[in-house]
Design a protein that fits this description.
This protein is an alpha+beta fold and 229 residues long. Helices cover 26% and strands 21% of the residues. It is globular and about 45 Å long.
């Protein structure tokens, strides 16, 4: 208890760390460093599209279910919650999934992670068509929540949509009731990814001679549409 303390409701509006938060009668802080290390911006910055992993670092089904819990609490169009997940963390099942995926379209000379750098687990995101044929933007919201949870726990992943869906459905014996939407690859990242400022309209990611992965991003001013109001 020497590294943590409790802040009561009366402290909320004055304490510099938590002014504005309103979610509990007691706000529990382990330490300032721990609090800041898991701030949302920090998690988002560390949540890159990782494609190379330490394959021998196992991910348990319990961990997968923990991250799925975050998707469960996330927003859903009409609250229909039409998306479900097939869990994979065994070598045999992972290999079947891996064989149906295409990796990093802009890296034309790279066929994907080699043996030893492949994901330790996957979540196959599917639409339950018996609930609805629509999933709106739920897939991205849920995938982001899952990946932020993975990053918080020291892991990372990549959302993959270049999938041989007929082959994957056959390999995993997926009933026709379910439509494959995305595959989320997960593992302990084994690569360095840096964010660059996008220049001259070139948004293609690339790797340098040291294997560092560069991702150009537009500046905030480029995201703002100036209207005539």
């Amino acid at each position: 208890m020497d590294v943590c303390r409790f802040l009561k409701r009366k402290d909320w509006d004055t304490h510099p760390l938590i002014a504005g938060y309103r979610w509990s009668n007691t706000f529990y802080i382990h330490s300032q460093s721990l609090f800041f290390s898991f701030m949302l911006k920090d998690l988002i910055l560390r949540n890159r599209s990782y494609r190379r992993f330490y394959q021998n670092e196992e991910i348990t089904e319990e961990q997968l279910r923990k991250w799925l819990e975050l998707a469960r609490f996330s927003a859903s169009g009409r609250n229909a919650q039409t998306l479900k997940y097939i869990l994979s963390n065994t070598r045999e099942k992972n290999d079947k999934i891996f064989g149906t995926l295409a990796w990093a379209g802009f890296l034309e000379d790279w066929p994907g992670p080699s043996e030893g750098e492949r994901p330790s687990a996957y979540l196959v995101q599917v639409l339950d068509k018996e609930i609805s044929t629509q999933y709106y933007c739920d897939d991205g919201i849920a995938a982001q929540s899952i990946l932020l949870g993975a990053v918080e726990d020291g892991y990372g992943g990549c959302i993959l949509r270049a999938i041989n869906k007929p082959m994957l459905a056959k390999e995993l014996y997926i009933p026709e009731q379910y439509e494959i939407i995305n595959v989320i690859a997960l593992g302990k990242p084994n690569e360095t990814i840096v964010i660059d400022e996008l220049k001259d309209g070139d948004y293609k990611y690339w790797r340098d001679e040291n294997g560092v992965h560069h991702v150009p991003k537009r500046v905030v001013d480029d995201l703002v549409v100036k209207d005539g109001y």
